[in-house]
Amino acid sequence: MLRITEVKLPLEHPESDIKDAILTRLCIPADQLISFTITRRGFDARKLSNITFIYTLDVEVKDEQAILKRLKSDKHLSLTPDTQYQFVTQAPAQLTTRPVVIGMGPAGIFAGLILAQMGFRPIILERGKAVRERTKDTFALWRQGVLNPESNVQFGEGGAGTFSDGKLHSQIKDPKHYGKKVLTEFVKAGAPPEILYVSKPHIGTFRLVGVVEKMRATIEALGGEIHFQSRVDNIDINNGQVSGVVLSSGKRIATNNIILAIGHSARDTFQMLYDQGVYIEAKPFSIGFRVEHPQSLIDHCRFGKYAGNPLLGAADYKLVHHCKNGRSVYSFCMCPGGTVVAAASEPGRVVTNGMSQYSRNERNANSGIVVGITPEDYPGDPLSGMAFQRKWEERAFELGGRNYQAPGQLVGDFIAGKPSTAFGSVQPSYTPGVHLGDLSTALPDFAIEAIREALPAFEKQIKGFAMHDAVLTGVETRTSSPIRIKRNDDFQSINTQGLFPTGEGAGYAGGILSAAVDGIKVAEALALNIMHQIGPK
Q: What's the pTM value of the predicted model, to 2 decimals?
């Protein structure tokens, strides 16, 4: 097949225009075109008076070599790359060892799925509950202010990404097209087929629930085992080699190969690993607030007269500002038409995150407005970043009234440095509720200074961004893991054989897609390691 890129068409074009564009680009008659597939569809909104779709198309034609030769100077025409996933090995029929996967977020699910598809019958351990039970516990915090430390936004089947926008785009390099494998498996499990080609695919929280359940069923049908409410309290390590895991129930599972996909909030597990001598180092992350605006404001600024067009959906944004104090402030995990959610996983602490449904039709847009920090900001041992996060989460709990309400402030008041006493035109979406006041002590002084400078700067890019009534809600501390469990080129811990750290918690991913891709890579490495241990027949 041939791949054609940069095919530009008007926003509201008839479907027949795509075929016509192919014939024009290739200079061929209609009977030479056999079929075509939309591989990617994005849009160019730089000119609000003329927003256009931009397509990448895979085309099947008669005599493609002749066309390639004739149009060899066209840099937007090439052979379609092979994106079909290829398994690196298959387990022997009489496999005596079974790998263990700890965690069932995106990295753990895809590691488990790939291992199951290769015949390795993984045992997956998840400290939280199955996704529907977990949803009930999560709603208990949102609606009643009751936190279950083992079943919440951070812990449970699907991981933290389940209660998010379900964003599936990433900027990782992916020469082996693992991302295509991820998206294909999501579609098999019930995700919208459009995620295979739209430029910024998303699934949405409620749809993710069903998708995750079907993927679990696939893993089990292939011989995998999944155990919920099975927190790993210890990993047995003998002479630098893992030999098993011990659950909170006291049960021990023997294994020489463990995938560690624990997510960015498993602080007790981080501590256990550190105490066991597994090499861990501190890494940068970011902290800040969630900001909410009317979605209509963002749509108008981004799409002009096309605001509200269903072909475009709810508009998003991506902003960054480099501050005078040397800090960088940027938008993080922007959720169009979504809500700000309570994402705490430890008692006495408040954490925010953003979430959207597939429809993205809620009244407000929200995004993290966060400040980059480095280990120099929290000196100490490799786990000092955890203590730093906890400090500001506890402060948010205190400022919010000690009942899991979040502290908040109007953007105009925050910039002016005065407390807020009443909401304006923007009503916050965070539940159990937002307690208005002064956020100036909710983060370190350097972060407050940087965000105060950045908000008016963002106004220059999106008119209305610094509107007085926009709402800031604190605090956002779980942008990424505060640690990295360093690994070798073979994806094993640098000082613990048989331990394969993966995903966000290990410091090797940032989002659903990148975590899933990393899970695939680690599953392949583990499978090859098992085959090496078995040796030739």
A: 0.94
